[in-house]
Amino acid sequence: MAIDARPAPLPAVPPDMTAGPADAVDAFLRLSAALTGFDRMELLGTGMVPRYYHELTRIIGAREVGTLLAAAGRVEPGRRRPAGCRPPGPR
Fold first, then answer.
1. What is the pTM of this model?
2. pLDDT above 90 coverage of the chain, percent
3. Cα dist from 11 to 31, 48, 54, 79, whole Å
4. Which of 21, 50, 72, 87 is most solvent-facing, going by the fewest CB within 10 Å?
5. What are the DSSP E strand ranges found in 9-90?
6. CA 76 → CA 6, 26, 28, 34, 53, distances in Å?
7. 79 CB contacts (<8 Å, ≥6 apart)?
8. What is the C-alpha separation between 47 and 12, in angstroms, rounded?
9. Sorting pLDDT into bands at 50, 70 and 90, what band is 73?
10. Residue 33 CB: number of other CB atoms within 10 A?
């Protein structure tokens, strides 16, 4: 791929597609919050949760997503994002 060439955009997730079982999505949100420092509502506010959950499942498979989320559920929560670090978007 040329340096200035851009990869093709990801296909849109159909609006009627559910992200997965509610408990799996909740676990995915908890893991995402722990990894990014954003809270659940900030992550939900992006509107990207179903797409990211679907993409993760597509890449590594449902069984591996289940294993990842189960393992993440056994990890104690860590620090929150540092003061002054804000989510992207309008200010």
1. 0.60
2. 37
3. 24, 13, 11, 34
4. 21
5. none
6. 39, 16, 15, 10, 22
7. 37
8. 12
9. confident
10. 18
| Residue whose structure tokens are 């890449």 | 59
DSSP 17: -
| Distance separating the N- and C-terminal Cα atoms of the chain | 35
What's the pLDDT score for residue 54?
Answer: 92
Which of the 8 DSSP states describes residue 1? Answer: -
Cβ contact 20:53 at 8 Å: yes
Q: Token pair for residue 46?
A: 């992006």
Q: Which are the contacts of 7, defined by CB distance < 8 A and separation ≥ 6?
A: 1
Amino acid 75: pLDDT: 74
Tokens, residue 36: 């990014």
d(CA 59, CA 80) in angstroms, rounded, equals 28
Flag whether pLDDT at 8 surpasses 70. Answer: no
